[in-house]
Amino acid sequence: MTDAPRRDIKNHVLFEIATEVANRVGGIYSVLKSKAQVTTAEYGSTYTLLGPLNRASAAVEVEEIEPKDPAMIKTIKSMNERGVVTLYGRWLIDGAPRVLLFDTKTAYHKLDEWKGDLWSTAGIPSPPDD
């Protein structure tokens, strides 16, 4: 029997996922914006918000920057090589949290694969039309 790998609880990352990251659509935008400064102060560069890329809002809400974390660099490069367009930067709100935005139109071809991964690795179901 092999031992399970130990988790590194000191060098963790925090991802927050929402459709309203740097994309004002409704009330969740205000919630994210109101807690970003505190969360960024606590987690620093290990906190990244993930969301869809809306080019119109990102043009005025996000300052594109180069990631410094090797794992983030590798992940973004891998996604871009697979045809998924991304934007990494700072959201221009209090706290300036890092964001990774995805052009969902370029990711549709991966949707079924990702849903399969969610199910097989975490048991998370996703309806066919979701």
TrEMBL record:
InterPro entries: Glycogen_synth. One of its GO terms (molecular function) is alpha-1,4-glucan glucosyltransferase (UDP-glucose donor) activity. Its EC number is 2.4.1.11. Coiled coil: none annotated. Keywords: Glycogen biosynthesis, Glycosyltransferase, Transferase. It catalyses: [(1->4)-alpha-D-glucosyl](n) + UDP-alpha-D-glucose = [(1->4)-alpha-D-glucosyl](n+1) + UDP + H(+). Belongs to the glycosyltransferase 3 family. This is Glycogen [starch] synthase. It comes from Cryomyces antarcticus. The gene is GSY1_2.
